[in-house]
């Protein structure tokens, strides 16, 4: 694993520092994604919380220079967690798609080094399910809580001890890094130093970009999203020529977010994650057909209910009229007597 990484890293210097690397950070709630982002940037840009309900609630994107390299880092909530409001999660997934448009250069999957529970295995299983083979070409794994690594051990050695971790890292091109957001800030040990491992992570990121020929992860749905963003920006330029470019970009994002939120109202969270992480058009068509089926079923039920109600009203009206007529006849007969 290590020798393969060394071969890739030797070419990272060829990427221009001005080249903006779009990086999406994924992982479960509480894995240390936001703290990792702060460690990479060397400043507190992302809110962190050590309480029981800790975890990023919203997608957040920041653009900064790190070691002279332009980095756009997109921090995300725990998309793979359960128990959160479905609409809230879908809105944040969509925001992540918009912020990483036209597509991310790298996915960084964050796992904790100290707790490999059944829950963590389930998270890895979900990621394996949602990630396509193509998406894995753009992916690396980063472990937090590096202080749990035994003295003298390297992260590659630790990974090899766990079959399910080793298999997962292999899917990610045998790429993995480690960091400690708390204890490795001023370490004198070269290996147990955040400065060293941030540099190593940036090398890994550059090598993924080089291996993919400066390309980024994209598929048809993301192309459509990017087209909508560009068209909205052009519309805003014509409508408000004095508006600054940054303001135009932000306004376009809001408009497109609202538009796509309505479009994706009836699709599942799983579909959105597959849209983001899988290029399997069959799965996407299947989910859209399912959503369309749900809509049509609801329409048929509503129509049937309305038809039944109409029949009931007609029957009630006829019954009332019949009863009224019978009452009038009875009253007439009584009067004759």
Automatic annotation (TrEMBL):
Task: Spell out the protein name for this chain.
Answer: AIG1-type G domain-containing protein
Q: Which PROSITE patterns match?
A: G_AIG1
Assigned keywords, A-Z: GTP-binding, Nucleotide-binding
**Natural source organism:** Cyprinodon variegatus
- Supply the InterPro entries for this chain: G_AIG1, GIMA/IAN/Toc, P-loop_NTPase
One Pfam entry name: AIG1
Q: What's the domain of life for this entry?
A: Eukaryota
Question: MF terms per GO, please?
Answer: GTP binding
- Membership in a protein family: Belongs to the TRAFAC class TrmE-Era-EngA-EngB-Septin-like GTPase superfamily. AIG1/Toc34/Toc159-like paraseptin GTPase family. IAN subfamily.
Q: Which SUPFAM superfamilies match?
A: P-loop containing nucleoside triphosphate hydrolases (SSF52540)
Every AIG1-type G domain range = 18-226
Name the PANTHER family on file. GTPASE IMAP FAMILY MEMBER 4-LIKE-RELATED, GTPASE, IMAP FAMILY MEMBER-RELATED
